[in-house]
Fold each of these.
Amino acid sequence: MTSASRRLWRTSPLTYMALVLAALLSIYPFYYMIVIGTRTLDSINDVPPPLTPGGAFGDNFGRVLDNDAANFLTGLMNSVIVSSVVTLSVVLTGSLAGFAFAKLRFRGRNILLLMIVITMMIPTQLGIIPLWGMMQELNWFGTLYAVTVPFLVSAFGVFMMRQYASQAISDELIEAGRVDGASTFRIYWNIVLPALRPAAAVLGLLTFMETWNSFLWPYAILTPENPTLQVSLSFLSYAYYTDYSQVFAATAVGTLPLVLVFILFGRQIIGGIMEGAVKS
Amino acid sequence: MSLSATTAPPSNVTPPGSEPPRRRGFLLNRLDLKYSPYLYIAPFFLIFGIFGLYPMLRTAWMSLHDWDMIGDQTFIGLDNYAALIKDDYFWNALYNTFGIFALSTIPQLLLALFLANLLNSTLLRAKTFFRLAIFIPNVVSVAAVAIVFGMLFQREFGLINWVLSFVGVDNIDWDGQRWSSWTAIATMVNWRWVGYNTLILLAGMQAIPKDLYEAASIDGAGPWRQFWQITVPMVRPTLIFVIILSTIGGMQLFTEPLLFANGSILGGNQREFQTLAMYMYEKGIENLNTAGYGAAVAWAIFLIIALMSLLNFLLVRRSAK
């Protein structure tokens, strides 16, 4: 045995036990969601509580679909629309501004960038009450505009793209583009945007997750008739909090898309979060 | 914007920096270089200005008024803030917010430090799996988390009371008392954020030079001493970052207690777990005629966050010297 593997054996059992326990505790509530969501209502009140999935998912989810208190399908579709539009816009506007801040010279650049960094520290809650009034004036109350338009840009997105662009794109590359007669926009579109792809992917994933999961503002401004998924879940759970199998079938379905995204892109998401932490 | 590309043939374009001679397309080119950056940053500043900055300033303005969302607005100066100081419900919400914050942040950070240290071990197998597994709670929406944990903490048939019954604890009415509701809500927050903090701290730990540990082991320092005397001090900047993030999140806590109370903005019958953010919502959005007062609560939350961040910063600077 080499000394390295000996050390592995010496330190491993407790370390692995702790990590496995942490992993189990992290995953268990998902499993529990599936257990309850696939059980009949009667079996949920059993003591001891059920620990394995049952076969009643179709029935439970059927009740979710029939339920007009929550408009679950509308919520699901709205969440897909809002999250996609916001993600696309945050990535595009973030990469445009990030490119300008990283690679172009213009008057006031440093002060404007500083402003963006400062705004990152201001909690969005600070503006929520007047924003609510503004939405009434715009006649956007209860519409998807209210949960989309204010979030089309993100200070974090601009900052992240700027950091990545200043490292990943050399000035020579942009100069070469200029020598070839490309306008600044063409340089952005044909040279910068492709080079920003890794950062854009991470930003896109983080933005999608955040938008999909946002709650306070959609809850304040949307109605049960036209909710996003999270709002729909909350109304479902208020109205049917005794019908746990129905509510859990809905939370399971509503969580599934993100878990799928996470299984596909988990490494990139984690890499992006860890990298962002070191830089800041 | 792309016009200059078509009007200027490649051979005619001057490299940036050098004084360009007069040529076709030169003017467009110069306009492009000088002004197009503003076009690229304009979308951010436009939308942020209207929907971010303006409402924020308006909150300050509103807080100086007796502001009714549908009716009158009378300027009353700092009266809202004076009322806030005498408002028992405000202090109650502040007390609850800090209580839940303490119960969530302290165990959360200790656990994250511990897990990050385990994951930082160079010989660990299945690293990626553990990282993914620990982070996955952060992917689930707060609403789903609050609903699921709401059932786990249910009084009659909840799993947690069932488990506790084995160690002789009687059924706890989790949303009936202050300490129990705080514990339940803090558990949801902890479950969701431990993994995230672990990853951030892990990133900080991986930047620590490995030879520090080698030197320490040669000097006979065990893992425990290495952790407290090398890892923790070296990871301090990251730790501060994580603490400030948790503070901002903790002071804005809203969804978990709201859903735990089944949608009641009061947070329990006796407001046992109404947080500052819930109180702001109660005054500013649920009751339109007290919007000015709600705005004052919003600014109070912001001031508390700023004060705590500053305090953190000063403490760190002091201990670093």
Amino acid sequence: MTNFLQLCFAGVAIGALYALVALGFVVIYKATGVINFAQGGLVLLGCYLTYNIHQTWGVPFYLSILLAMVACALFGAAIERFVLRWMVGQPTFAVLMLTIGLLSIIDPAVTAVWGFDRLNLGDPWGIEVLKSGEVVFAVKDIWTIVLAAVVLLAFFLFFRYSSMGVAMRATAFDQEAAIAQGISARRVFALSWAIAGAVATLAGVMLAAGAGGVRPDIQYIALIAFPAIILGGLDSPAGAVVGGIIIGLTQTLTAGYQPEYAPWLGNGFNGVMPYLVMIVILMVRPYGLFGTPEVRRV
Amino acid sequence: MRLRNLNMTRDYADDLKLFRTRQSKASIVAVLALALLLPVLLPDDFWLSVLVYAGIFAIGAIGLNLLSGYTGQVSLGHAFFMACGAYTTMMLGTRHELPLPVWLLASAVVGGLVGGIVGPFALRLRGNYLAVISLGLVFLGQHVFENWESLTGGPGGNGSTAPLSLGFLDFNALAVGGRAYTRNQSFFWLVWALVFLSLLIAKNIVRSRPGRAMQAIRDRDVAAQVIGVSLGRYKVGAFVVSSALAAMAGALFATYQQFIAPDSFNLFLSIQFVFMIIVGGIGTVFGSVIGALFAGLLPALVSKYGGSIPFIEQQPGAGGLTVFQVNQIAFGVLIILFLILEPRGLAAVWLRIKAYFRAWPFSY
């Protein structure tokens, strides 16, 4: 039982990480209809920037997260302004391939600057733990869960109450009608990429904090957020969080029980379990648990 | 004067011709002759092996272009289908020593079957979701192949030496008319013969009814359905053909390299295929070959002449970018530049040059 609780907590914590990455995907998809394969690259860039500002330049940790968020937001907005702006009116598969091209650039560029070594982020949480009975809670994991909840709440308030959030929803719903109402679609697009960059930095920091370390394969961890958003539905922030947590739980429970009960599935099966869940979900519910089914009219 | 040499379409039969002008017939003959003579004229092992890899990738790229370029379904799963072909060859060719036609065909059939199983997902999902699903396929495939140690040798990889003789022709060391040729020369002929075969198959698909159906699906699937195109049939069909070609490329890849490890079939390989069809030309059959040649020659040039480019590291660990990083960045940058500046790729550039000289010296 203790083992089970422990695995569940770990699952929720990892799930919160996936949720943070997934929220970045969702905000771009919601506003611009682009599935952004480069999100993992933004996550990678965000955590390396934080590392650089904190460890190399000696800025206090929380301030350096903030600075990295701003820098990554600007980078996201710049991608939108200088690369994606040219693709307006092109078919979506072309835009998708373009983000694949971006991913292929960001990853080697980051490793060229910072190398392949595992670096210490220098976060204040380290490997501290809290104990409740037999179950151990890593402080970093608690922070991750709180942060995911805060970001989700912020998204909810932003999209519901702020005029810019409403403008973004309107643009996503019908671009032309939104422009006719005086909403600047360009600003909406740039802002959504900026938000995605800022959220990606948070995700990157939490992925690299604690025992993990700053390392290039963080972007592959970020790719597991894909099953999470597919599960939750591409256009739903709440779905991203629920999807992330379900994926995190399946992953840790698989890691905990599969070697004992189903060893024939091979070593490291928990690494590919999310993709399996995603394929099964897509067979049953193509638009995810909370996604909007696409209406097709002639 | 009969304007026979101009590319003029007078009826449907003209539109469906394989070779629409005399020049295109002549140029095909010229290219075939060049392909036949090239290994003799250029017996350099480095460049021959670059061209052999380019040919292998061209077969896969033709497949991906049928799926993405003509049917509009973006797939990142091409590396997985290549792996299917490579491991079918390892099973039948290396282990059971079945002859060349058997393992080559079996690889294509297995690839097509796996494509046919995955295909219905493509039917259920529209374009963009497929890219995500196929991304999952790459990771699932790598897991399966890394754990199927008896066949694949686990993460460390396994030797792959399938038999290469076809009747009196042995493609390991071809000997024709008393002259002996090297392995690279022999392989060049084998691979490029298969490239031409794949080109012929693809060209015949796209110029006939299925091709028109696929393009209708790409351009507007709802409209295609309304005019009576069966989405299921053609999407799954495109998937099957594309995976079969990828698997055939994988079979040749494994056999030429004589060794494969599961992690050669990674996400970057799939991205390379996307690169080939974008740079070569989305929705043109011969563009896939141009793209594959480009994708093969670019890393070769970087690795051969990288020493004279300042920011590339000369020895490992000496700082600067590694050759692999340079390739990855170059591929990414070119994908973006081509999508923005020339979405129809090098094929369109070529057609423009041809159109310019057709009416030369008049500009129109």
